[in-house]
Amino acid sequence: MDLTQMRYAVEIAQCGSISKAAKKLYMGQPNLSKALRELEEELGRPLFRRTAQGIEPTRAGEEFLVYARKILSQVESLKALYQPQGQTEVQLSLCVPRASYVASAFCQWAQGHANGHFRLQYREANASDTIQTVFTGDAQLGIVRYHTERADYFEGLAAAKGLHLAPLWDFHMVALMHKSHPLAPIADISPSRLAEYPEVLHGDITATSPEDVSPTAQDSQSGSHILVYDRAAQFDVLRSVRGSFMWVSPMPAEVLEREQLVQRPCSSGWVYRDAAIWRGHLPDAASGFLDTVHEKINALMQV
């Protein structure tokens, strides 16, 4: 039994539903159900029972929740005891893909929450580095991006390391290019139409399993590549190198306008998934940031 299991039980009781609690905790319902089942097996008795309205604590569950809430409250009091008086430091460490909508969400969240004393860390990395960074505790929250056909591998890898994984959305990659690109007027661009143009790639996208190859290596017919590690530099290349393009997740309109870029859908393109990963209890700051990420995703899906 640990603090995370106690927090799960308290959240389930507050929500009156495992599915609602899982959504609030940014967990998959099967994972939360499994955690509850393991806790009940350890205690030797059920903590909740199903009703027509959802679930409610059993008598044993009510007793457990009294102690769990008291322990969690004491833990928070202990943390506050060693916090400098009058100072509440906001801490958030992230490891995410090079995605403009995620960066935009971070800036929006920081603007509203990073008041007073704060320590924020924002790092962009590939999926394998992100998983390792979250596993070692160097980041409180990660967002990993992977091809949906590789979902079993990446989600299995996260589970093997004891990490929680919650899918955020599935999306078609879009072709990003300067507004003066010869193919910019085309509404739906196929990969073959881009074969003669130089493709800009993230320089550190490496295979994490024998089956995991980049979409460019697997499907693209483009013969020229420009490897760039910095997202801002990629925008510079797209503006400066005639005909250059890159495959990205859907972009916020304000970023496209600011960088003088356009995105063009590819209905025959690859489908990718962005998923949040974390270890143990998700801190309030990380949970709030994920709420902002969801807002950005909802806005992009309505375009």
From TrEMBL:
PROSITE patterns attached to this UniProt entry: HTH_LYSR
Classification via InterPro entries: LysR_HTH_N, WH-like_DNA-bd_sf, WH_DNA-bd_sf
SUPFAM superfamilies listed in its UniProt record: Periplasmic binding protein-like II, Winged helix' DNA-binding domain
Pfam families: HTH_1
Keywords, ordered alphabetically: DNA-binding, Transcription, Transcription regulation
Span of domain HTH lysR-type: 1-58
Family: Belongs to the LysR transcriptional regulatory family.
Designated name of the protein: LysR family transcriptional regulator
Organism: Ruthenibacterium intestinale
